[in-house]
Design a protein that fits this description.
InterPro entries: Dxylulose-5-P_synthase (IPR005477), THDP-binding (IPR029061), Transketo_C/PFOR_II (IPR009014), Transketolase-like_Pyr-bd (IPR005475), Transketolase_BS (IPR020826), Transketolase_C (IPR033248), Transketolase_CS (IPR049557). Homodimer. This protein is of the alpha/beta class. It folds into three domains: 2-215 and 255-309, Thiamin diphosphate (ThDP)-binding fold, Pyr/PP domains (Rossmann fold, 3-Layer(aba) Sandwich); 337-491, Thiamin diphosphate (ThDP)-binding fold, Pyr/PP domains (Rossmann fold), CATH 3.40.50.970; 505-647, Rossmann fold. The protein has 27 helices and 21 strands. Strand 7, helix 13 (276-289) and strand 8 (293-298) form a beta-alpha-beta unit. Helix 15 runs parallel beside helix 22 (470-480) and helix 23 (533-547) packs across helix 27. The structure holds thiamine diphosphate, 1-deoxy-D-xylulose-5-phosphate (DXP) and magnesium ion (MG).
Length: 649
């Protein structure tokens, strides 16, 4: 199907190359940008925005955040001297403009195999330093880099650009606490304050930033300048320009910022993040002040693109393939795992008033929005604060609630200790719902939800389920919220649901999906977990066709263990007489399900060989989920080949 500038083949979309405007095309690095005259900057900003919309609408990506930082990123590269000065983008989802200004002008394959990644990447450029897309780390990086530079007598600046959302994360404040005590370190913290994470940023800090942003006396000063000076010809214009240039000073006069100053940081702000002159003036000033300085910049997420500016939900925080003019999706999203969770949790909340939803700044993406709309006082957004979310959930459980913390699998990594010590040790009935578990693909190394099984398998008492379809997800959730004395965890992948996968029989150790319901000697058992249940079934089908007519009478049984951890004793018994066990898991092999199964089997003196097919211990480069699954040998063909190889079929 041909659709405007996209060719859609099945679910794959092919892209034509997008051409940058003349000014943008002339920039191969920060030196070219520095050579531009001030009056050329608005045109460059316009060309960048157009390029972003044209390119990102074809591939999907973080459009809204990047549209908001066009002038800011230009100013950073004109005032500082990257890579000698270090620019760090917290989370990194807003670094597209930085890429465009540092020689990466081909976004044709943004976030696709072989193309530019969606985050800073050391492999791509010497201008990229921090690749980690888990939020709230930039100031710690800046603290560390500047600490060592100071020790070496290197006075180059380190600039950490951090969003108001990322600033709700505890790590940011731990870093500020460290930085603020030393005045010899040339660190500039730029707070990119657009008032939003996905949705509006929550909490006391957000209110404080709001107050600074909307101080009426400051607005009045600017409005007065506009009205009285701009109507007085050239001299008035010059005076207004001067006021603009001075605005940071004006701002300090009308809204002195006690909080940051008391912490020991010099504060400059607020600065209009879409006014290149004001931005450069403020950043120059921050640079010359020396020591840690915080520059508070006000930006508009989605700036300059009407569909994003008007998007109530999240200002086009992250989009799929969209029509560039309307912003409407071109590839309709199919009913997915998140939607099932969203629906089921409301039903459960209707029945059980103790259920409380918890989110770390991702209420809509994790599916808690419908519950919030029905029960506004029963869904808590804690900000980007996963560690706090987990411990607070333990507290809620102590006080009588059953918290359900819905979070992307990769972001639970940082709260391991809290799950262990605050939830499990205290036997708290908290349910963790991990969306985006397993290979996610296009967001690159840090977003794959591949560590959770290994990490969580170490936690005493924790029960972990990996549903394979809609019905098993609903059933797992129904059961999880009844467990009141231990953590329960449910994981599922990104994207669309498979068709229902029915069980031949449900047993105490899981669902038998194909093969023999009763134990058979010398059978091959495929333990097909979660999103790989379908793969296991297809592989079994192909294998059974291969052995048909063969006198060996090989039975291939597919079992979905559903509640995978702790490994069930009776499952191990079932495997005792098998010839081979193949474990399919959308997670890390090291310490994963197969590893836990082997441990349990050894305890029970069952020595059936277990072949593990999961994700080897490595960071996965960005590519589509399908491509990665194929490359890892987790698709049907590879499973069939593995079994044939082992059995010499
Ligand atoms: C530890 C962690 N939790 C959650 C996320 C998901 N996430 C990505 S961007 C974002 C909102 C960031 O808001 P802000 O820092 O203000 O940046 P903006 O998008 O507004 O520019 C969230 C919650 C993440 N990247 N890292
Ligand atoms: C930067 C970040 O962490 C999120 O924006 C994430 O990229 C969203 O991922 P999904 O598109 O899978 O919701
Ligand atoms: Mg923000």
């Amino acid at each position: 199907m041909k659709n405007g500038k996209h060719t859609i083949i099945g679910t794959m979309v092919e892209f034509e190359k997008v051409t940058p405007g003349p000014l943008l095309a002339s920039i191969s690095g920060p030196a070219d940008l520095k050579a531009l005259r001030e009056e050329q900057l608005p045109q460059l900003a316009q060309e960048i925005r157009k390029y972003l919309v044209d390119a990102v609408s074809r591939t999907g990506g973080h459009l809204g955040p990047n549209l908001g930082v066009v002038e800011l990123t230009m100013a950073l590269h004109r005032v500082f001297d990257s890579p000698a000065d270090t620019l760090i983008f917290d989370t990194g989802h807003q670094a597209y403009v930085h890429k465009l200004l540092t020689g990466r002008l081909d976004f044709t394959q943004l976030r696709q195999a072989g193309g530019v990644s969606g985050y800073p990447s050391r492999a791509e450029s010497e201008h990229d330093v921090v690749e980690n897309s888990h939020a709230s780390t930039a100031i710690s990086w800046a603290d560390g880099i500047s600490r060592e530079r100071a020790r070496q007598g290197n006075e180059r600046h380190v600039v950490a650009v951090i969003g108001d959302g990322a600033l709700t994360g505890g790590m940011a404040w731990e870093a500020i606490n460290n930085l603020a005590e030393s005045d010899d370190r040339n660190v500039v913290i730029v707070v990119n304050d657009n008032g939003r994470s996905y949705a509006p940023t929550i909490g006391g800090l957000a209110h404080h930033l709001d107050a600074l942003r909307t101080s009426p006396s400051y607005e009045k000063a600017l409005a007065w300048g506009k009205k009285h000076l701009l109507s007085h010809g050239k001299p008035g214009e010059v005076a207004f320009e001067a006021l603009h240039g001075l605005k940071t000073g004006v701002r300090e006069l009308v809204a002195p910022n006690a909080m940051f100053a008391e912490l020991g940081l010099k504060y400059i702000g607020t600065v209009d993040g879409h006014d290149s002159v004001a931005l450069e003036t403020a950043l120059q000033r921050a640079k010359s002040l020396g020591g840690p300085v915080l520059v508070h910049v006000i930006t508009q997420k989605g700036r300059g693109y009407t569909p994003a500016e008007e998007d109530v939900a999240d200002r086009f925080h992250a989009v799929g393939v969209i029509h560039p003019e309307t912003g409407l999706p071109l590839v309709p999203s199919r009913f997915g795992w998140t939607a099932v969770f969203a629906d089921e949790i409301v039903k459960l909340a209707d029945e059980d008033p103790t259920i409380v939803g918890v989110t770390a700044a991702m209420m809509a993406p994790v599916g808690l929005k419908p519950m919030f709309e029905k029960y506004p006082d029963r869904v808590v957004d804690v900000g980007i604060a996963e560690q706090h979310a987990v411990t607070a959930a333990a507290g809620m459980a102590f006080a009588g609630a059953h918290p359900v913390f819905a979070v992307y699998a990769t972001f639970l990594n940082r709260a391991f200790d809290q799950v262990l010590m605050d939830v499990a040790l205290h036997k708290a009935g908290v349910t963790f719902v991990l969306d985006r578990a397993g290979v996610t693909g296009d967001d690159g190394a840090s977003h794959n939800g591949m560590w959770d099984i290994s990490l969580m398998s170490m936690i005493p008492g924790l029960e972990l389920a990996s549903p394979r379809d809609e019905a098993t997800l609903r059933a797992a959730l129904q059961r999880a919220v009844t467990v009141k004395d231990a953590p329960t965890l449910i994981r599922y992948p990104k994207g669309a649901l498979p068709d229902p996968i029915l069980a031949l029989e449900s047993t105490e150790f899981g669902d038998v999906l194909a093969g023999s319901v009763t134990q058979v000697a010398d059978e091959v058992v495929i333990l097909a977990t979660g999103s790989l249940a379908e793969t296991g079934l297809e592989a079994a089908f192909q294998l059974s066709q291969a052995v048909e007519g063969d006198a060996s009478d090989l039975t291939i049984t597919v079992i979905d263990p559903l509640w995978m951890l702790p490994v069930k004793e009776n499952l191990v018994k079932r495997l005792a007489s098998a010839k081979l066990v193949v474990c399919l898991e959308d997670g890390l092999e090291t310490g994963g399900y197969a590893a836990n199964l082997r441990e349990e089997m050894a305890k029970q003196k069952v020595f059936t060989p277990v072949v593990s097919k999961g994700i080897p211990k490595q960071f996965l480069q960005h590519a589509s989920r399908g491509q990665i699954i194929h490359e890892l040998g987790l698709d049907t063909e590879a499973v069939v080949a593995t079994v044939r190889d082992y059995l010499a079929l």
